[in-house]
């Protein structure tokens, strides 16, 4: 494994020299969803599947955007125009948070990974570090014009104990990715969590350096602290 990472880092060093004039840019991703297979067990599961399908339909309409400069990145979801349908209001609102919630900021110099989001009617700023506990595999494939390699984030480090699978390319030596995923020796061009996938659609480079705004508002917490707060709220609602 160390040999694989060393090889990727060496390749990235050579490629970085050719990308110095393209330090800033924007990556757009498309959303896709794998539908459930087989027949539902009961009406409850059928209703849940229909809601999931409807939510995914709306999620495909949003713009998933990663802005970056040489050391920082900023990921957010720009929602599509609101729908004019009262029955679809709930799945539309949920669709904005299907793959991730809030905005994400990454900094390779300071090793920061911030997530600003609103939950429980309060604004939070989740503080953390860039993920370095990826399992980089020997699997590779071509996505578009990029040679990509597979990396896995184990269930122990994922939301809701779901494994995250990504494909990154050393041909774009940026340690960034969508939804706070990063820390790999190359840009993440595809990421899958549960049944949801974000895939690179386009990357545009800017002639001038892009200023990335670092989020600083919100109650500062760790991911573990926020999960405990949310569990406490759920327990109180159950008791009530």
Characterization of the model:
The chain has 240 residues and is of the alpha+beta class. It has one domain (2-239). Helix content is 24%, strand content 37%. It has 4 helices and 12 strands. Strands 7-8-9-10-11-1-2-3-4-5-6-12 form a 12-stranded mixed β-sheet. Strand 2 (63-68) and strand 3 (72-78) form a beta hairpin. Helix 2 packs across helix 3. The longest helix has 17 residues, at 2-18. The radius of gyration is 19 Å and the shape is globular. The model is unreliable at 9-21 (pLDDT under 50).
Let me know the average pLDDT: 87
Order of helices and strands: HEHEEHEEEEEEEEEH
Quickly count the domains. 1
Multimer state: single chain
What is the CA-based Rg, rounded?
19 Å
Low-confidence stretches: 9-21
List keywords for this structure.
alpha+beta; 240 residues; GLPGLI; 12 strands; globular
Topology (elements, then pairings):
Elements (H helix, E strand, L loop, with lengths): L1 H17 L5 E10 L9 H17 L3 E6 L3 E7 L10 H7 L7 E5 L4 E8 L2 E8 L5 E9 L2 E8 L10 E6 L17 E7 L2 E11 L12 E3 L1 H17 L1
Parallel strand pairs: 6-12
Antiparallel strand pairs: 1-2, 1-11, 2-3, 3-4, 4-5, 5-6, 7-8, 8-9, 9-10, 10-11
């Amino acid at each position: 494994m160390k040999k694989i990472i060393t090889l990727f880092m060496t390749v990235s060093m050579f490629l970085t020299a050719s990308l110095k004039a393209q330090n800033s840019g924007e990556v757009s991703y498309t959303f896709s969803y794998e539908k459930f297979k087989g027949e539902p067990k009961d009406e409850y599961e059928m209703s849940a599947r229909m809601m999931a399908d409807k939510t995914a339909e709306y999620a495909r309409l949003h713009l998933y955007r990663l802005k970056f400069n040489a050391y920082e990145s900023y990921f957010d979801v720009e929602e599509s125009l609101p729908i004019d349908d009262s029955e679809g209001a709930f799945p539309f609102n949920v669709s904005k948070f299907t793959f991730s919630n809030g905005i994400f900021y990454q900094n390779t110099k300071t090793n920061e990974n911030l997530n600003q989001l609103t939950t429980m009617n309060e604004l939070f700023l989740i503080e953390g570090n860039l993920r370095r506990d990826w399992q980089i595999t020997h699997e590779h494939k071509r996505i578009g014009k990029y040679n990509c390699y597979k990396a896995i984030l184990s269930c122990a480090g994922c939301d809701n104990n779901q494994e995250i699978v990504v494909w990154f390319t050393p041909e774009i030596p940026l340690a960034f990715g969508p939804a706070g995923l990063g820390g790999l020796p190359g840009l993440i061009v595809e990421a899958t969590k549960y049944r949801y996938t974000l895939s690179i659609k386009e990357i545009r480079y800017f002639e001038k350096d892009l200023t990335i705004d670092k989020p600083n508002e919100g109650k500062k917490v760790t991911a573990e602290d926020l999960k405990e707060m949310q569990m406490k709220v759920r327990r109180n609602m159950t008791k009530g």
